[in-house]
Design goal:
The protein is mostly helical. 82% of the residues lie in helices and 0% in strands. The protein has two helices and no strands. It is rod-shaped. The termini are far apart. The mean pLDDT is 83.
Length: 67
């Protein structure tokens, strides 16, 4: 049993897989944070663009909004 434990401690067979798993986890968490942080600014831009389109549509139709 002690020999197996020493061999497990010394060998590096699974080290690459663990490192890649940790890297993928970090990237996934960072992406989720960026998406959450960017939600409000994108919503503001979308709202502004929608308002501009609505005003342009109303102006183009002689002051009567059309759907």
């Amino acid at each position: 049993m002690a020999e197996r434990l020493c061999r497990f401690w010394v060998e590096e067979d699974g080290q690459d897989m663990i490192e890649y798993s940790l890297l993928i986890t970090f990237i996934a968490i960072a992406c989720m944070w960026f998406v959450g942080a960017g939600r409000d600014p994108v919503k503001g831009i979308w709202t502004t663009a929608n308002s501009s389109i609505t005003v342009a549509n109303t102006s183009a139709n002689g002051g009567t909004p059309q759907n």
